[in-house]
């Protein structure tokens, strides 16, 4: 079976909700460019747009890009879309902020994400990562901090979900910023 064919993007995951709430409560992105990688349905990116950001949604699946743009438009956010596979990511534009919600869990794909962060993050930019406490993501964050000289604000929280059989999820957010600037 082709793992890329599984529509994991078609769900608003607890990590996306938690990250969207963090962005809404803590960031002013007025005049900043934002790239949401693996946008899925685009909740964190849409919230970035509501916080003043100029957003581009990116996913390997055209339906995901289209739905991200549609959801943003429903919320009054103008955005752009980019169809791209991380393994051959050709986008040249650099962004002030990269958003990664529950996408850094595959050790085989993380080197491609690392290359994208190197290539597509502006100098002085920041990266926001959320996940359901996955060990490969923690390792990826440490590698990003080391290679890009970033410092971290980490928030661990519990996301309640009455619709799930689990009832709650543990989510970590990593807000990575240049080491030379004050946190938040």
- Proportion of helical residues: 25-40%
CATH topology: Rossmann fold
> What pattern of helices and strands is seen along the backbone?
HEHEHEEHEHEE
How are the strands of the largest sheet arranged? 3-2-1-4-5-7-6
pLDDT averaged over residues: 90
Named at the architecture level, the CATH assignment is 3-Layer(aba) Sandwich
Low-confidence stretches: none
Count of separate DSSP helical elements: 5
- The outline comes out as globular
What does this structure look like?
This protein has 184 residues and is of the alpha/beta class. The chain has one domain (3-178): Rossmann fold (3-Layer(aba) Sandwich), CATH 3.40.50. It has 5 helices and 7 strands, in the order H-E-H-E-H-E-E-H-E-H-E-E. Strands 3-2-1-4-5-7-6 form a 7-stranded mixed β-sheet. Strand 6 (150-161) and strand 7 form a beta hairpin. Helix 1 (14-26) runs parallel beside helix 2 (43-50). The radius of gyration is 15 Å and the shape is globular. The termini are far apart. The mean pLDDT is 90.
